[in-house]
Amino acid sequence: MMPMITTLFAVTRSAVRLPSGSVSAQCSAVGLRQACAAPRTRQMSMALKTGIVGLPNVGKSTLFNALMQESQAQAANFPFCTIEPNTGVVAVPDPKLSVLAEINSSEKTVPTSLSFVDIAGLVAGASKGEGLGNQFLANIRECDAIVHVVRCFDDPNIIHVSGSVDALRDIEVISLELVLADFAQVEKRAQKASKELKSGKTKPEEMSALETLQAVLDEGRPARQAELSDVEWECVRSLGLLSAKPVIYAANVMDSDLADGNAMVEEVRKHAASEGASVVVVSAQVESELVDLDDDERASFLEELGVAKGETGLEKLIEQAYNLLELQTYYTSGETETKAWTIRRGMVAPQAAGVIHSDFEKGFIRAETVAYDDLVSSGSMKAAKEAGLVRSEGKEYVVKDSDVMLFRFNV
Ligand code: GDP
What we know:
Blueprint: H1 2-15, H2 23-28, H3 43-46, E1 49-53, H4 60-74, E2 82-84, E3 87-91, H5 96-103, E4 108-110, E5 113-118, H6 133-141, E6 145-151, H7 167-196, H8 204-218, H9 230-236, E7 247-252, H10 263-275, E8 278-282, H11 284-290, H12 295-304, H13 313-324, E9 327-333, E10 337-344, H14 349-356, H15 358-362, E11 364-371, H16 372-378, H17 381-386, E12 391-393, E13 403-409
Parallel strand pairs: 1-5, 1-6, 4-10, 6-7, 7-8
Antiparallel strand pairs: 2-3, 3-5, 9-10, 11-12, 11-13
Helix pairs in contact: 4-11, 7-8, 8-9
Guanosine-5'-diphosphate binds next to helix 4 and helix 11.
């Protein structure tokens, strides 16, 4: 095994041609063509988008702003910022980063990221263009998942668009707008598709998918509840159906309900369970106050509210969104830095390498791989190698969550 790795490595050494001052230069510092601090990384563009939706005055912007401030405070070296006034990238909290950095004496750690978009302005009638509805629906179409903020706090000073606070009614208003917008789209596509069926331009699977979707949406149910085969889903993926996107309900409560929730939260939970969706209880207002506090102040503030230490709503929300998107993390770790990378579950090693740089995917040879737990229990990469825990994986290897990887590639 060893001679083969040496040979492969010799190939990469002679053949790598990367843009000036890029990956090759940095990685030679640690003696390997390693996926590390590349200035041309695709990390930012990889960030998957989660749209924050909900009726007006439910706390979306308060939550969004807290998310942005929190991530800037938590990750000083994180190369992100608010991209547009309503879009920002947040660091995904990950305690494994500092453990790996300690083992490999990394100079810095770089977390992976998720992008959030504050989609304001959805109101009843949005699917018919009310309140700039179409524009906002188009914003949701570009998202990979949805955080639906639901007002579960009563405050006479904060006007509710419908005159009273009713979590379930609010959920239905938003959900129905998404369903109606999807119905119009599916209907339009189905009309065209049925004409194209004879000429073979539309596949029968697409037609059957559209028919099933039409029936589900017609009952007012979200597209995600349609029982379609993988092939059928693939046929309708380009429609970007709003109600097919995975959803997390963020039940926004007042500070005194943060620990134990309230009756409205229970209603939201029941509703979410019936849809197979998850719920995160947050207090947007508390979160916006927490971001200005240091760790000790934060712990005592949360303790006063009866919330377990370390469990901020924002962290829970980011983690849930990450899970919802079926994402997982792998790491690269060396002296320069320890970095977390986001991939979709099921990706093979070359695809994972491609997240760092497309050249890594094209020229992929092998990936030296060790499980995070094995590396930690061994105490060092050297010890892990000696114990036979570092594997040389090839093109077919399906990357596991928390793998620590080093790519050999040839361009
Ligand atoms: P959006 O329209 O959904 O983006 O709502 P905003 O985030 O702008 O919030 C509307 C109003 O509700 C603001 O005055 C917030 O300060 C207030 N608000 C947001 N979250 C909470 C909360 O958890 N409790 C209370 N009492 N007020 C909140």
